[in-house]
Specification:
Helix content is 41%, strand content 28%. The chain has 194 residues and is α+β, with helices and mostly antiparallel strands. The strands form two sheets. Strands 1-5-4-3-2 form a five-stranded mixed sheet. Strands 6-7 form a two-stranded antiparallel sheet. Helix 2 links the parallel strand 2 and strand 3.
Length: 194
């Protein structure tokens, strides 16, 4: 009976911790993408202040998180995630504590154009934050329904109707490939078309 109570307690603590982590990410993490962001581009990691302490640990966590979310990590990449952060030592725990991460993803093939910005306001653990950022970026879809979609047919070309576009958009949303916000914006664009 004691073992069962211990297992249930551990399970409840795990569920509660996960919920708190997700809630903490929701409150402190902001990831903003431009329409130029391409999640299939190669990416590398750098820090804004050269030689800043702790970057090796941060870089390692980000590489692992991005690789596990199907990003291609490469030294001579198209994108670089350039970050700044604060840090300090927690003497009692003999470890580094990180806080206030700000980062930009720059497109090196396009004059270092900013394609994404990332802000984590507050103290953070490396692996959960790196993974949350990678997950948010991996959800990105490049969707421009306001531009007519041309479908080639043998007798010529046709443009998809509003109904077809709305159905396609709804399918993307139901498959969780776009967010509610993206769905609402694109739906408004389609409905406003002539």
């Amino acid at each position: 009976m004691k073992n069962i109570c211990t297992i249930i307690t551990i399970a409840l603590l795990s569920i509660n911790s996960f919920g708190q982590d997700a809630e903490k990410m929701k409150q402190h993490l902001t990831v903003t993408l431009t329409d130029k962001f391409d999640k299939t581009a190669t990416i590398s990691f750098d820090h804004i202040v050269p030689g800043k302490h702790g970057f090796d640990e941060i870089s390692s966590s980000f590489k692992n998180a991005f690789a596990s979310n199907n990003f291609t990590i490469k030294e001579n990449s198209q994108y670089v995630l350039s970050m700044e952060y604060k840090y300090g030592y927690v003497i009692a725990m003999y470890r580094m504590q990180y806080s206030n991460l700000t980062a930009q993803i720059l497109d090196l093939n396009n004059n270092k154009t900013i394609v994404a910005t990332i802000i984590y306001d507050g103290r953070f653990e490396l692996d959960p934050v790196a993974n949350a950022i990678a997950v948010e970026l991996s959800k990105a879809t490049i969707l421009n329904i306001s531009t007519p979609i041309i479908v080639e047919k043998q007798s010529g070309t046709t443009i998809k109707s509003k109904e077809e576009k709305l159905i396609e958009l709804k399918n993307l949303f139901e498959k969780q490939l776009i967010t509610q916000e993206d769905y609402d914006k694109q739906k408004a664009v389609i409905l406003a078309e002539n």
